[in-house]
């Protein structure tokens, strides 16, 4: 038996999480380095997986399969196609930056030390909670679960992970808020727990409905194995009644649409991203939410091709609303992080649009979009986080003229913003254009409506940049320090990656294209032919 | 004598017991009313046993007695300790178990 | 030779990378690095040009594929360059004028502490603009298209501490993005129609699709051109863009970037030739803008904004010519090149004046500068003569041809377009004479600035005057050089094609008419501004003047409809999101809470009430059981 590479990639951060949590309370720095080390080792393993993957080979590679719960036919089945691999690599790539960016986010703050020494009625025990260790352990835990969910090819296993990752995320959002808040500490804590509970409830409701659909699927199919079901469906030995397929599809899709999030199920995201620290916000939007869009591609289209086609018109409209609505709301925001959250909603609209356009360009574009959006949002959000930490406020109106005092910070912020508005030459352009072209060739009107998104994106990014970075230097901004070495180490590789994937996305498309062709044949769709077969 | 009359008696005793539980405040009285209800049930069980000609009802009656005995032990202990701490045997005074 | 093409772009790109990432260490040498790399690009351009001249007309085009950019099933985008005569013309213009303006900027920006960054942006602009003109497919062109937009954004907002500059930069980018939307839709249409968006296959297959499709593509391309070239209705950004440093206005907002729309239309000639409706839209846009820009140019007191109006108007000429079809393509490009010389020269002259006048831009506060700045005066004057079409100078040849071509369109259309072009020429003569008189003639009207510094007009340093002199040479001789023996026509014809059309009036008549309107325009201007003293504070003026000062109220319209409307829309959407979308969810949560609050009251802690509910429940269960039995 060969080395279980996929299990190892997921297990390593999990072990790291336990190890980090076990570090004694006084050794905070050790815990940080340990977490970073484990995340880097995971990245190495992901790199090995990338190298071992053969783009032209079998659909699922590096597969592992073990019996798990025999009575219900639940198996521990892993395997990656190009899409899963790309997202797995993205996750492994982003976590070290998230850890590094959040280096000081969980240090005991002066106020929390004060609280603990005062010892309120609920704190009769000595102060033994270890926030720093917990913070990094939770991040690694999320990484482990997300990576495993990208690898799972068993529906039940996927479902468990899909739900389980809510728990560490809940604690990350509710337990470690952004210290830059307006109003009192108590008020901020209330806001934070509101956001965390909202996040949890939304996703639990989605998950509950999905659970019903998962059980329904088992009743119909008699197995949880993705490949077995797909095979049975393709060979005709498993047929579903049309209405059954549609109900099951809706059950799955609802859960993914909450996670993605798609309009009108989006309102948890701005709260969660606004209240969480910026690295956690990156974790939400760039890593965890991708599981939702990924699952649409992997499960909705593959398990329920007919129902997917049936639901396409509605989903396309919802995606278009997300694009325009998210962008317009981003324009109207006064809080930097909420603005980025709404921008993300707009971008998720693009991803869903690309998936359900059901053309090669659309789906390749959507997959690339997931990766590129992860990188670009991480860059923008983390720089925004550095900015917010310096000034201690999330309100756009509290900034002005930062460019003058901290040019490098402003420059990186601008590049992150330009990536967000999909400037050609940076990675998101490639994916956005593919999505647009793919959509346009299937649904021209939808393609045109989606194109207005590029104007609106320019609007919210440039307004944000203008209000925060340009103009006369505000008194509170005076003397703001430029990016430090640690922060540069976080931002520059991300920017380099954005540039590289914008100019030369071929390595990525090579991995993704075969997987997309498989999906296209699952839904039995062919790309629309151009009107003129151009003279070649 | 028609055994059905015993059933009427059992129903009457049960109703008196239930009314006592609902109306009275003294814990001891409430407690005795509960006993009354239990014994009404016992009477009904024994009657049914007689009517149907098997022993099931009588066996259950024994069970009930055991349960009633256990209840007396625990219940009286609680009442006494409540009385000790509150100097009152009124059930309305012990209304702490609410949200 | 092919390999040199990539180098053309690589040189300024390297410059941008080095200067922008290099940090403070490069502050002292940065401007030299930038200028040298721009010059290197120019030299490569010249080498390629000479090589091209040595070949026959048909095999002059060079092609180089660098790598496959976005390969997806059915969708192939390459990074590939194509250098034909049309691209070559642009390459020489961009790198040539670009290098001159780099040199000029060394002096102009000498006192700016962020000069290194300025040169980095300029190099970035050059690279993007070169990609735009040598791309071999529309998607790569789009990269350059947005790239120049970015460079323009960065340079307009170069003095970011001024809120007006930051706003102008944002506005330019946004308006351009609306145009870019047109370009991307055009590319998508091409993809669904032709299955590709490379120039060769698309332009070669226009015969195989319907006119409707081509019209749609053409109109979308026109929208793109309107954004980039500041044509009505997307013209509003250009005036504000003058907030940028003057070399930027000269290079980007006069000589090169704003003419990209003309390039796009001429390059896509095959599409427009097959779509007459789209062509009609192009000429209408060109004609309207040419008058619009000219009228705005007449009313502005800010020297740069007057010139910006003029730029808009001159590009209107080019777009008009490009919309005429094969009759006009060559002349559109020829006017573009000559305009590149004289307008860049005029802007550099304006910059030189501002340099000597403490950055004052109000022409009413200039006056009589000719004796203080002789070199600036002469070069500016030559540019002035060129733009109004003084016989023998560059503008005369190129503009005259466009007016002729407009008449040659034939029918009522031809007469209308020709008359508009003539009227435009008259207005051009008027506003340019006005600029000239207000700035260099009359008595001095200088005033101390806000800090009380009296301006001391002086000639600019050599690094600034030499580029102006070279451009003045271009303004004088380029037109003649191109026209004698139809050199320019023969050079471009293999790419753009050419037809002569049937002019209802002879060329000589057109020239004579042009001369007449020219004299009229100059005379009116002299009567208004030359004969009598000019008030320092602008008089109220007629309704038209006041409207023209406000860009013919276009900005006010935008402000009321788009900005205000958009603000209301976003604000109400934020409200809707908070109260309605989120409200439904929070409402569910709240009603749950309310219900449980009410249910909680049942738990009152009295043993008796629990007992009642037990008895009640039991009774209900028994009753239900009996009822079910009975039924």
UniProtKB/TrEMBL annotation, chain B:
Subcellular location(s) of the protein: Cell membrane; Membrane
Highest taxon above the source species: Bacteria
Transmembrane segments: 6-23, 28-48, 60-83
UniProt keyword Transferase present: no
Keywords: Cell membrane, Membrane, NAD, Quinone, Translocase, Transmembrane, Transmembrane helix, Transport
InterPro entries, per database record: NADH_UbQ_OxRdtase_chain4L/K, NUOK/Mnh_C1-like
Gene3D superfamilies xrefs: 1.10.287.3510
GO terms (BP aspect): ATP synthesis coupled electron transport
Catalytic activity from the UniProt record: a quinone + NADH + 5 H(+)(in) = a quinol + NAD(+) + 4 H(+)(out)
Family: Belongs to the complex I subunit 4L family.
Oligomer and partners: NDH-1 is composed of 14 different subunits. Subunits NuoA, H, J, K, L, M, N constitute the membrane sector of the complex.
Protein task: NDH-1 shuttles electrons from NADH, via FMN and iron-sulfur (Fe-S) centers, to quinones in the respiratory chain. The immediate electron acceptor for the enzyme in this species is believed to be a menaquinone. Couples the redox reaction to proton translocation (for every two electrons transferred, four hydrogen ions are translocated across the cytoplasmic membrane), and thus conserves the redox energy in a proton gradient.
Protein name: NADH-quinone oxidoreductase subunit K
Origin species: Streptomyces atratus
């Amino acid at each position: 038996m060969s080395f279980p590479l996929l299990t190892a990639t997921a297990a390593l951060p999990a072990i790291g999480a336990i190890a980090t949590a076990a570090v004694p309370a006084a050794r905070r720095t050790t815990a940080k380095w340990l977490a970073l080390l484990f995340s880097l080792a995971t990245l190495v393993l992901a790199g090995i997986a990338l190298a071992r993957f053969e783009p032209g080979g079998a659909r699922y590679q590096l597969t592992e399969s073990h019996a798990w719960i025999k009575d219900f036919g639940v198996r521990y089945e892993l395997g990656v196609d190009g899409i899963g691999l790309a997202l797995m690599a993205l996750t492994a790539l982003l976590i070290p930056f998230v850890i590094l960016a959040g280096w000081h986010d969980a240090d005991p703050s002066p106020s929390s030390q004060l609280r603990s020494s005062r010892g309120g009625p609920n704190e009769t025990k000595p102060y033994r909670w270890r926030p720093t260790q917990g913070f990094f352990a939770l991040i690694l835990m999320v990484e482990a679960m997300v990576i495993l969910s990208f690898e799972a090819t068993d529906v039940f296993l996927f479902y468990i992970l899909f739900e389980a990752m809510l728990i560490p995320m809940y604690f990350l959002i509710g337990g470690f808020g952004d210290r830059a808040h307006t109003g009192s500490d108590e008020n901020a804590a209330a806001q934070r727990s509101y956001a965390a509970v909202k996040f949890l409830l939304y996703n639990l409701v989605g998950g509950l409905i999905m659970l019903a659909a998962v059980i329904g699927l088992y009743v119909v199919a008699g197995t949880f194995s993705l490949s077995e079901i797909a095979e049975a469906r393709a060979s005709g030995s498993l047929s579903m009644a049309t209405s059954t397929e549609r109900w099951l599809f809706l059950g799955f899709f609802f859960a993914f649409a909450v996670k993605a999030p798609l309009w009108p199920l989006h309102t948890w995201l701005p709260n969660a991203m606004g209240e969480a620290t910026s690295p956690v916000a990156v974790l939400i939007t760039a890593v965890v939410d991708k599981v939702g869009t990924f699952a649409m591609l992997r499960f909705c289209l593959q398990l329920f091709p007919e129902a997917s086609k049936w639901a396409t018109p509605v989903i396309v409209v919802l995606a278009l609303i997300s694009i325009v609505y998210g962008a317009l709301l981003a324009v109207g925001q006064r809080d930097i992080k909420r603005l980025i959250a709404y921008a993300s909603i707009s971008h998720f609209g693009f991803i869903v649009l690309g998936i359900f356009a059901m053309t090669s360009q659309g789906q390749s574009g959507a997959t690339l979009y997931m990766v590129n959006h992860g990188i670009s949002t991480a860059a923008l959000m983390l720089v925004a986080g550095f900015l917010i930490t310096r000034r201690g406020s999330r309100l756009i109106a509290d900034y002005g003229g930062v460019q003058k005092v901290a040019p490098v910070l402003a420059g990186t912020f601008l590049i992150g913003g330009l990536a967000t508005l999909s400037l050609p030459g940076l990675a998101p352009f490639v994916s956005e254009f593919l999505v647009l072209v793919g959509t346009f060739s299937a649904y021209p009107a939808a393609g045109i409506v989606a194109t207005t998104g590029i104007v609106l994106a320019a609007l919210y990014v440039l307004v944000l940049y203008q209000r925060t970075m340009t103009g006369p230097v505000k008194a509170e901004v005076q003397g703001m320090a430029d990016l430090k070495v640690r922060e540069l180490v976080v931002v520059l590789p991300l920017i380099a990656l954005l540039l590289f994937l914008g100019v030369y996305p071929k390595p990525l498309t090579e991995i993704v294209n075969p997987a997309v062709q498989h999906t296209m044949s699952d839904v039995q769709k062919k790309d629309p032919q151009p009107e003129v077969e151009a003279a070649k | 004598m028609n055994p059905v009359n015993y059933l009427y008696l059992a129903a009457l005793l049960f109703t008196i017991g239930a009314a006592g539980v609902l109306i009275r405040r003294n814990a001891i009285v409430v407690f005795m009313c509960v006993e009354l209800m239990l014994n009404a049930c016992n009477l009904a069980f024994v009657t049914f046993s007689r009517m149907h000609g098997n022993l099931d009802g009588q066996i259950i009656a024994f069970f009930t007695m055991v349960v009633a005995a256990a209840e007396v032990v625990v219940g009286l202990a609680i009442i006494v300790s409540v009385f000790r701490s509150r100097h009152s045997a009124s059930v309305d005074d012990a209304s702490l178990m609410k949200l | 030779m092919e390999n040199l093409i990539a180098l053309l772009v690589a040189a300024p790109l390297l410059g941008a990378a080095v200067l922008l990432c290099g940090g403070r260490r490069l502050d002292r040498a940065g401007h030299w690095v930038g200028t040298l790399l721009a010059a290197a690009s120019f030299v490569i351009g010249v080498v390629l040009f000479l090589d091209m001249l040595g070949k026959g007309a048909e095999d002059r085009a060079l092609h180089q594929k660098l790598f496959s950019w976005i390969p997806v099933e059915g969708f192939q985008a390459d990074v590939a360059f194509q250098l034909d005569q049309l691209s070559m013309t642009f390459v020489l213009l961009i790198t040539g004028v670009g290098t001159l303006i780099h040199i000029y900027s060394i002096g102009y920006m000498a006192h700016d502490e962020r000069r290194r960054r300025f040169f980095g942006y300029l190099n970035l602009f050059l690279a993007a603009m070169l990609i735009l003109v040598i791309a071999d497919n529309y998607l790569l062109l789009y990269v350059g298209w947005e790239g120049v937009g970015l460079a323009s954004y960065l340079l307009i907002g170069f003095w970011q501490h001024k809120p007006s500059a930051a706003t102008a930069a944002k506005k330019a980018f946004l308006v351009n993005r609306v145009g870019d939307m047109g370009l991307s839709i055009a590319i998508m249409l091409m993809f669904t129609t032709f299955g590709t968006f490379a120039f060769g296959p698309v332009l070669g297959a226009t015969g195989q699709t319907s006119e409707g499709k081509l019209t749609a593509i053409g109109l979308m391309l026109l929208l793109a051109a309107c954004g980039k070239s500041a044509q009505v209705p997307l013209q509003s950004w250009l005036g504000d863009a003058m907030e940028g440093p003057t070399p930027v206005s000269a290079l980007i907002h006069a000589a090169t970037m704003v003419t990209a729309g003309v390039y796009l239309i001429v390059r896509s000639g095959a599409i427009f030739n097959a779509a007459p409706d789209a062509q009609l839209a192009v000429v209408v846009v060109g004609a309207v803008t040419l008058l619009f820009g000219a009228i705005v140019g007449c009313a502005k007191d800010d020297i740069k904004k007057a010139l910006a109006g003029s730029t808009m108007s001159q590009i209107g000429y080019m777009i008009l010519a490009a919309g005429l079809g094969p009759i006009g393509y060559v002349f559109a490009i020829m006017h573009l090149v000559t305009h590149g010389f004289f307008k860049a020269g005029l802007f550099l002259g304006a910059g030189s004046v501002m340099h000597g006048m403490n950055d004052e831009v109000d022409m009413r506060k200039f006056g009589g500068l000719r004796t203080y700045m002789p070199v600036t005066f002469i070069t500016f004057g030559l540019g002035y003569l060129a733009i109004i079409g003084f016989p023998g100078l560059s503008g005369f040849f190129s503009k005259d041809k466009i007016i002729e071509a407009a008449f040659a369109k034939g029918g009522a259309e031809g007469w209308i377009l020709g008359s508009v072009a003539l009227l435009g020429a008259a207005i051009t003569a008027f506003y340019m004479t006005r600029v000239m008189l207000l700035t260099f003639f009359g008595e001095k009207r200088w005033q101390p600035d806000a800090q009380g510094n009296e301006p001391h007009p002086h000639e600019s340093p050599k690094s600034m005057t030499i580029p102006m002199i070279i451009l003045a040479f271009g303004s004088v001789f380029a037109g003649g050089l191109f026209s004698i023996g139809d050199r320019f026509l023969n050079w471009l014809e293999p790419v753009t094609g050419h037809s002569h059309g049937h002019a209802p009036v002879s060329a000589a008549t057109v020239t004579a008419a042009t001369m007449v309107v020219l004299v009229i325009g100059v005379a009116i201007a002299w009567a208004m501004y030359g004969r009598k003293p000019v008030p320092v504070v602008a008089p109220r003026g007629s309704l038209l003047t006041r409207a023209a000062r406000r860009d013919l109220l276009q900005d006010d319209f935008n402000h009321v409809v788009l900005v205000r409307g958009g603000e209301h829309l976003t604000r109400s959407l934020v409200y809707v999101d908070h109260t309605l979308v989120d409200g439904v969810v929070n409402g569910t949560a709240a009603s749950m809470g309310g219900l449980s609050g009410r249910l909680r009251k049942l738990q009152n802690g009295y043993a008796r009430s629990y007992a009642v509910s037990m008895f009640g429940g039991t009774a209900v269960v028994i009753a239900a059981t009996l009822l079910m039995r009975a039924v």
